[in-house]
Specification:
This protein has 10 helices and 6 strands, in the order E-E-H-H-H-H-H-H-E-H-E-E-H-E-H-H. The chain is an alpha+beta fold.
Length: 278
Protein backbone atom coordinates (compact mmCIF):
# COMPACT_ATOMS: atom_id res chain seq x y z
CA UNK A 1 0.00 0.00 0.00
CA UNK A 2 1.28 3.43 -0.88
CA UNK A 3 2.02 5.99 1.79
CA UNK A 4 3.03 9.63 1.46
CA UNK A 5 6.56 10.51 2.52
CA UNK A 6 6.74 13.56 4.75
CA UNK A 7 9.79 15.73 5.32
CA UNK A 8 10.78 16.19 8.96
CA UNK A 9 11.67 19.53 10.51
CA UNK A 10 15.33 18.54 10.44
CA UNK A 11 15.29 17.84 6.73
CA UNK A 12 15.16 14.06 7.11
CA UNK A 13 12.47 11.80 5.83
CA UNK A 14 9.95 9.84 7.83
CA UNK A 15 7.15 7.63 6.66
CA UNK A 16 3.60 8.69 7.42
CA UNK A 17 1.92 5.71 8.97
CA UNK A 18 -1.63 6.64 8.12
CA UNK A 19 -3.85 4.20 6.16
CA UNK A 20 -3.44 3.83 2.45
CA UNK A 21 -5.56 2.43 -0.31
CA UNK A 22 -5.18 1.36 -3.90
CA UNK A 23 -7.84 0.65 -6.46
CA UNK A 24 -7.51 -2.93 -7.63
CA UNK A 25 -9.00 -3.92 -10.95
CA UNK A 26 -8.16 -7.59 -10.83
CA UNK A 27 -8.81 -7.97 -14.56
CA UNK A 28 -6.70 -4.98 -15.55
CA UNK A 29 -3.93 -2.69 -14.39
CA UNK A 30 -3.96 -1.45 -10.83
CA UNK A 31 -3.82 2.32 -10.61
CA UNK A 32 -2.16 3.70 -7.48
CA UNK A 33 -4.32 6.12 -5.51
CA UNK A 34 -2.55 6.93 -2.25
CA UNK A 35 -4.66 8.10 0.67
CA UNK A 36 -3.17 11.17 2.37
CA UNK A 37 -3.40 11.99 6.03
CA UNK A 38 -6.28 14.39 6.75
CA UNK A 39 -3.81 17.26 7.28
CA UNK A 40 -2.00 16.67 3.97
CA UNK A 41 -3.26 18.75 1.04
CA UNK A 42 -2.78 18.52 -2.71
CA UNK A 43 -0.76 21.72 -2.47
CA UNK A 44 1.49 20.02 0.06
CA UNK A 45 2.15 17.06 -2.21
CA UNK A 46 2.78 19.36 -5.17
CA UNK A 47 5.29 21.39 -3.15
CA UNK A 48 7.07 18.26 -1.93
CA UNK A 49 7.13 16.82 -5.46
CA UNK A 50 8.52 20.09 -6.82
CA UNK A 51 11.28 20.16 -4.21
CA UNK A 52 12.24 16.55 -4.85
CA UNK A 53 12.23 17.09 -8.62
CA UNK A 54 14.57 20.07 -8.22
CA UNK A 55 16.82 17.93 -6.05
CA UNK A 56 16.95 15.47 -8.95
CA UNK A 57 18.22 18.17 -11.32
CA UNK A 58 15.02 19.44 -12.89
CA UNK A 59 16.25 22.09 -15.43
CA UNK A 60 16.02 25.44 -13.69
CA UNK A 61 15.33 27.27 -16.95
CA UNK A 62 12.16 25.25 -17.58
CA UNK A 63 8.82 25.78 -15.83
CA UNK A 64 7.90 22.94 -13.51
CA UNK A 65 4.40 23.85 -12.31
CA UNK A 66 2.24 23.44 -15.43
CA UNK A 67 -1.53 22.78 -15.53
CA UNK A 68 -1.08 19.01 -15.70
CA UNK A 69 0.92 18.86 -12.46
CA UNK A 70 -2.25 19.68 -10.55
CA UNK A 71 -4.17 17.04 -12.51
CA UNK A 72 -1.55 14.42 -11.63
CA UNK A 73 -1.63 15.35 -7.94
CA UNK A 74 -5.42 15.21 -7.90
CA UNK A 75 -5.37 11.80 -9.57
CA UNK A 76 -3.02 10.50 -6.86
CA UNK A 77 -5.59 11.09 -4.16
CA UNK A 78 -7.97 8.32 -3.17
CA UNK A 79 -11.26 8.47 -5.00
CA UNK A 80 -9.94 9.93 -8.25
CA UNK A 81 -12.45 9.15 -10.99
CA UNK A 82 -12.69 7.89 -13.67
CA UNK A 83 -10.25 4.98 -13.24
CA UNK A 84 -8.05 6.24 -16.09
CA UNK A 85 -7.65 9.68 -14.45
CA UNK A 86 -4.00 9.07 -13.55
CA UNK A 87 -2.90 7.69 -16.97
CA UNK A 88 -4.68 10.58 -18.68
CA UNK A 89 -3.10 13.12 -16.35
CA UNK A 90 0.37 11.67 -16.92
CA UNK A 91 -0.17 11.77 -20.70
CA UNK A 92 -1.15 15.45 -20.44
CA UNK A 93 1.90 16.11 -18.26
CA UNK A 94 4.22 14.39 -20.75
CA UNK A 95 2.72 16.48 -23.55
CA UNK A 96 3.21 19.73 -21.63
CA UNK A 97 6.71 18.81 -20.51
CA UNK A 98 7.85 18.14 -24.09
CA UNK A 99 6.14 21.32 -25.29
CA UNK A 100 8.26 23.25 -22.76
CA UNK A 101 11.42 21.60 -24.18
CA UNK A 102 11.95 19.12 -21.35
CA UNK A 103 13.64 15.89 -22.42
CA UNK A 104 12.22 12.38 -21.89
CA UNK A 105 14.95 11.87 -19.28
CA UNK A 106 13.79 15.02 -17.46
CA UNK A 107 10.25 13.66 -17.44
CA UNK A 108 11.37 10.26 -16.15
CA UNK A 109 13.27 11.85 -13.23
CA UNK A 110 10.25 14.03 -12.47
CA UNK A 111 7.95 11.01 -12.19
CA UNK A 112 10.51 9.19 -10.08
CA UNK A 113 10.50 12.23 -7.78
CA UNK A 114 6.71 11.98 -7.44
CA UNK A 115 6.95 8.26 -6.74
CA UNK A 116 9.51 8.98 -4.01
CA UNK A 117 7.12 11.45 -2.40
CA UNK A 118 4.64 8.63 -2.04
CA UNK A 119 6.28 5.41 -0.90
CA UNK A 120 8.46 2.65 -2.32
CA UNK A 121 6.69 -0.48 -3.42
CA UNK A 122 4.16 -1.57 -6.02
CA UNK A 123 2.36 1.78 -6.18
CA UNK A 124 5.59 3.64 -6.94
CA UNK A 125 6.60 1.04 -9.53
CA UNK A 126 3.23 1.30 -11.24
CA UNK A 127 3.40 5.08 -11.22
CA UNK A 128 6.81 5.00 -12.89
CA UNK A 129 5.53 2.46 -15.42
CA UNK A 130 2.50 4.62 -16.25
CA UNK A 131 4.81 7.60 -16.70
CA UNK A 132 7.05 5.62 -19.04
CA UNK A 133 4.00 4.63 -21.10
CA UNK A 134 2.75 8.24 -21.19
CA UNK A 135 5.98 9.75 -22.51
CA UNK A 136 6.29 6.92 -25.05
CA UNK A 137 2.75 7.54 -26.30
CA UNK A 138 3.35 11.28 -26.76
CA UNK A 139 6.64 10.70 -28.59
CA UNK A 140 4.98 8.10 -30.85
CA UNK A 141 2.09 10.46 -31.59
CA UNK A 142 4.42 13.29 -32.55
CA UNK A 143 6.48 10.99 -34.76
CA UNK A 144 3.40 9.70 -36.60
CA UNK A 145 2.00 13.19 -37.14
CA UNK A 146 5.44 14.38 -38.25
CA UNK A 147 5.42 11.73 -40.97
CA UNK A 148 2.05 13.01 -42.23
CA UNK A 149 2.09 16.77 -41.71
CA UNK A 150 4.54 19.64 -41.52
CA UNK A 151 4.35 21.13 -38.01
CA UNK A 152 5.25 24.57 -39.38
CA UNK A 153 2.68 24.84 -42.19
CA UNK A 154 0.14 22.07 -41.40
CA UNK A 155 0.54 21.00 -45.03
CA UNK A 156 0.98 17.34 -45.85
CA UNK A 157 4.45 15.87 -45.86
CA UNK A 158 5.77 14.99 -49.31
CA UNK A 159 5.27 11.28 -48.66
CA UNK A 160 1.69 11.76 -47.46
CA UNK A 161 0.89 14.06 -50.40
CA UNK A 162 2.17 11.50 -52.90
CA UNK A 163 0.01 8.89 -51.16
CA UNK A 164 -3.00 11.18 -51.62
CA UNK A 165 -2.07 11.60 -55.28
CA UNK A 166 -1.62 7.92 -56.06
CA UNK A 167 -3.89 6.24 -53.52
CA UNK A 168 -6.88 3.98 -54.23
CA UNK A 169 -9.31 6.84 -53.58
CA UNK A 170 -7.98 8.59 -56.69
CA UNK A 171 -8.08 5.54 -58.93
CA UNK A 172 -10.41 5.56 -61.91
CA UNK A 173 -10.94 9.31 -61.97
CA UNK A 174 -9.01 12.30 -63.36
CA UNK A 175 -6.49 13.65 -60.88
CA UNK A 176 -5.18 17.19 -61.27
CA UNK A 177 -2.19 18.71 -59.50
CA UNK A 178 -1.37 22.41 -59.47
CA UNK A 179 2.28 23.32 -58.97
CA UNK A 180 3.67 26.78 -58.32
CA UNK A 181 7.35 27.65 -58.37
CA UNK A 182 9.16 30.85 -57.47
CA UNK A 183 12.74 31.83 -56.87
CA UNK A 184 13.39 31.32 -53.13
CA UNK A 185 15.36 33.88 -51.20
CA UNK A 186 19.07 33.23 -50.82
CA UNK A 187 18.86 33.35 -47.03
CA UNK A 188 17.25 30.30 -45.44
CA UNK A 189 15.30 32.28 -42.85
CA UNK A 190 13.83 34.51 -45.55
CA UNK A 191 12.86 31.54 -47.74
CA UNK A 192 11.18 29.91 -44.75
CA UNK A 193 9.29 33.11 -43.93
CA UNK A 194 7.99 33.18 -47.51
CA UNK A 195 6.85 29.57 -47.24
CA UNK A 196 4.93 30.36 -44.06
CA UNK A 197 3.30 33.41 -45.65
CA UNK A 198 2.20 31.44 -48.71
CA UNK A 199 1.00 28.55 -46.53
CA UNK A 200 -1.10 30.91 -44.42
CA UNK A 201 -2.84 32.23 -47.55
CA UNK A 202 -3.33 28.86 -49.25
CA UNK A 203 -4.32 26.83 -46.20
CA UNK A 204 -7.55 28.75 -45.64
CA UNK A 205 -8.45 28.44 -49.33
CA UNK A 206 -8.19 24.64 -49.53
CA UNK A 207 -11.45 22.79 -50.09
CA UNK A 208 -12.54 19.40 -48.81
CA UNK A 209 -10.66 16.76 -50.75
CA UNK A 210 -7.70 19.04 -51.51
CA UNK A 211 -4.27 18.77 -49.95
CA UNK A 212 -1.02 20.68 -50.28
CA UNK A 213 2.70 20.06 -49.79
CA UNK A 214 6.00 21.79 -50.30
CA UNK A 215 8.46 19.91 -52.49
CA UNK A 216 11.20 22.50 -52.09
CA UNK A 217 11.78 25.99 -50.68
CA UNK A 218 10.15 27.47 -53.79
CA UNK A 219 7.82 24.69 -54.95
CA UNK A 220 4.24 24.24 -53.75
CA UNK A 221 1.86 21.53 -54.97
CA UNK A 222 -1.88 21.28 -54.45
CA UNK A 223 -4.07 18.28 -55.25
CA UNK A 224 -7.14 19.91 -56.83
CA UNK A 225 -10.80 19.00 -56.75
CA UNK A 226 -11.12 20.46 -60.27
CA UNK A 227 -8.68 21.97 -62.79
CA UNK A 228 -10.45 25.33 -62.59
CA UNK A 229 -9.20 25.71 -59.05
CA UNK A 230 -5.73 26.42 -60.42
CA UNK A 231 -6.83 29.85 -61.66
CA UNK A 232 -8.13 30.70 -58.19
CA UNK A 233 -4.84 29.70 -56.60
CA UNK A 234 -2.91 31.74 -59.16
CA UNK A 235 -4.93 34.78 -58.16
CA UNK A 236 -4.34 34.03 -54.50
CA UNK A 237 -0.56 33.99 -54.92
CA UNK A 238 -0.61 37.26 -56.80
CA UNK A 239 -1.79 38.83 -53.55
CA UNK A 240 1.26 37.62 -51.59
CA UNK A 241 3.66 40.53 -51.16
CA UNK A 242 7.31 40.18 -52.22
CA UNK A 243 6.81 36.71 -53.69
CA UNK A 244 8.12 37.68 -57.09
CA UNK A 245 7.29 35.97 -60.41
CA UNK A 246 5.45 32.65 -60.03
CA UNK A 247 5.31 29.91 -62.65
CA UNK A 248 2.28 27.67 -62.20
CA UNK A 249 1.16 24.58 -64.11
CA UNK A 250 -1.65 22.05 -63.87
CA UNK A 251 -0.69 18.41 -64.35
CA UNK A 252 -3.09 15.53 -64.96
CA UNK A 253 -2.08 12.17 -63.62
CA UNK A 254 -1.78 9.57 -66.38
CA UNK A 255 -3.66 6.30 -66.51
CA UNK A 256 -1.80 3.03 -66.58
CA UNK A 257 0.41 0.99 -64.27
CA UNK A 258 2.17 2.31 -61.20
CA UNK A 259 5.54 2.32 -62.99
CA UNK A 260 4.20 4.91 -65.41
CA UNK A 261 3.00 7.06 -62.54
CA UNK A 262 6.43 6.90 -60.95
CA UNK A 263 8.14 8.34 -64.00
CA UNK A 264 5.45 11.01 -64.28
CA UNK A 265 5.93 11.98 -60.63
CA UNK A 266 9.63 12.64 -61.17
CA UNK A 267 8.81 14.82 -64.19
CA UNK A 268 6.29 16.82 -62.16
CA UNK A 269 8.53 17.03 -59.10
CA UNK A 270 12.17 17.06 -60.26
CA UNK A 271 13.04 18.30 -56.78
CA UNK A 272 12.84 14.63 -55.74
CA UNK A 273 16.03 13.94 -57.70
CA UNK A 274 18.26 16.21 -55.63
CA UNK A 275 16.23 15.83 -52.44
CA UNK A 276 14.80 12.28 -52.45
CA UNK A 277 12.25 11.07 -49.98
CA UNK A 278 13.72 9.68 -46.74
Amino acid sequence: MARLRAATDTGGVSIVTGPASMSDDREGTRVPRPRHRPDTSAAGLRAQWHAESRRRDWPRDLPWDVPATSAVVTACFEGATPPDALPDALYALADERLAEAASPADFARDIEALAYCLDDGPAADELIGLGRHAIGAVLARDHVLGELYSPATSFRSRTAFLADLTGPAAAGMPVHVWTARWRPAARTWSATATQLTVASAVRTALRDGESAAYFGPGCLAVLLTSPGRGTELDELLRGVADLGPVESLIHTRPDGPLERWGRWLIKVFPELIDDPLP
